[in-house]
């Protein structure tokens, strides 16, 4: 990968104190919770964004909230950067460490503490995987709705950090809509509980603020999540179109008519070919774009909703309509879709963008994306959550070719700027992380960014929590960790 | 009313500068936007909480965001408290002014700026009434979901300030779930735009933080709200029970089974009698408690959901089941429920509590509420949003009897503490305002409150925005406006 994204210089003073810091951390933790050997640190030197690797000072894997608190207080007292880490599945580099940092991983805090069906809630530790919540309540007829493609591996802690989504979030909302409360360790080791099993909370909505704050406002150790009753039935249906523009316009019209299926996923021709070759999902190969529309409920409800959707699809010249005929067929359709990233990785290097646009802009943005990719002489596969306008162009390139790598990153930046200019935003579910940090200036004015940084400073006065992420390093924010000059209140530029 | 709630002493220095301040404000505003005559200020000296009255220094009614910005910057520069005001329908005293304050009302900013059906969004000014959004899109088959009982009068600006709910929020969520973006004036007159028509936003979720922040983080002047397609049909059904405990347990079991109707409203015997006498809604009079359960969708969908609900109700010994047979009958059922507060006001003085509890605690809290009311020798009518655990005990008393007034306030406090102790919270939709400010200590630890106050200080460093609300005045927060000592970061008590 090229180094379009400038990395912070580590604080040499912290690195030189390494033996003392390790000795201190060892005092705070039980046996087996501290990793300091270089070969054992390797699995923690990057995340699923992969483009950058940095070896942290140490990795701690606490077993309790109290241990997280002890380590975080120690790091804050000693101005040591801290990188919170779930399963390391971030696609925006949210969990990439830096050389002077201590990684706090939640992988040992992986117990479901309580399932409370009368209140439709579960209390889980932050290291619990996304899928295991649904598995724990499946027999009782419930599930946890947000379903990132990485749901077998990714943790609830990471989901909260990035406000993760998934294919079925069109109907049920993303993480923030399914999170009822958290237990969180603050920068100074104090422990707060926000929200809980009751609707709403008095005072400010700190729960919403924490969700999606990318580990910069504290470290979540427990979460109370909403459980939802499984529908009577669910049926994914394939709609094939002769152009991406027609498929995009069809999505706009379905949602514009006020119809909200469980999911509307979009795949263009390259994505169909890649996924079909991998999963033999039965996708039609003679179309230019495919929508997977899932409806759910009773047979009568599904039929009624499908009837309205088919009518709209016909107006956009739908070429193929194929309903899944069995649970096996339905599972195969989703397997194809959910393996899109993995299947693409088998044929080329790729970077996955995560822009979100107002639905009325879908066709326009698809067309312009095509133009951008052509201009750089690259290839793209589009496979994304169309129902909520969350686009995922996968830009294919050869990582061994530095020039092509640079072109891929530049094309990605152009596409994200296009999304912002169309009234959308830089990210739908992957977060800003390190990847989109410098593009925040395209999305936000100085006034906006200054306000976000003031909020951050109210939670993390020394900027030790995931310090190189989310905000641009250049200009007023300094170029060194700890040097970010937070604008004082009252002095923001207009 | 007794004065259980201590009022801040106004800043005499500000009051003495009154003529100069009025002259300065006149410079910033066009003709007809500044109110300073005492008799014209009277309508602004309280809100629907009514218990307290204070005459503000002046009321400004700007016509544009730029005028709001000019006034807010002036007040911040001169350390003058500012009270943002929608329609003054707050039930927690959120819009009650203080003698040294300038009220900024949004009533002249009452235009719907854009209806964008393909993106299911409307952009409205903050002074638009809640109902007028639904009216504007009704013919197109859409509506705006949150429906406070005051929806004919209350403004979107006020709804955002208090994160307002309503009977139909069980299915569709409260204001924060239906708000997509805001234009907001910051303390220093800078103008920010947060969110918009696309899903999610990069960086922190400031939109969620703003919603429900009771006018303390800025003044919202425009909002982008979500539009929802009207259902094919809707049918309220009355379920009569022999006890409040049975009705409460029935609600717990409906929601615990994962069934989410549009609304589940609860009325006890006194509430039924009061509402029926006022609205002749056809409520059964031979039961101790009534649930209004509304289902929606096609006839088949409604029948299917009702069948499951009736089965659960039978387990709890339901005595009467009555389905509305026509649109007129349905409207009458809702008229009875929505007039509960007004109808109660005709027979007695009352204060309305707004605690929220986990659903599994409904019956327990109803029983304990009864005990508290008996202990004080008062009467209570319970009429509330049972489906999301948002309780509204109306405590009846004689406002001309100082002892009974005090008892009513003390009983109210005991009930809210009961809600918190049951795992719930002080407010579901009315906000903390001035009413529940001192009870925040029962809900939150010092660490929690300190963190909320640090967030506030990041948005309003001089504490000029709605300064006497939300946070307790006593102890570490000082007892004078402007004297609140925000805990410095790093020094919170454990």
Automatic annotation (TrEMBL), chains A, B:
Residues 52-230 form the FAD-binding PCMH-type domain. Its cofactor is FAD. GO terms for molecular function: FAD binding; oxidoreductase activity. Keywords: FAD, Flavoprotein, Oxidoreductase. Residues 477-487 have a biased composition (Polar residues). Pfam families: FAD-oxidase_C, FAD_binding_4. Residues 471-494 are annotated as: Disordered. It comes from the Bacteria. PANTHER family: GLYCOLATE OXIDASE SUBUNIT GLCD. This is Glycolate oxidase.
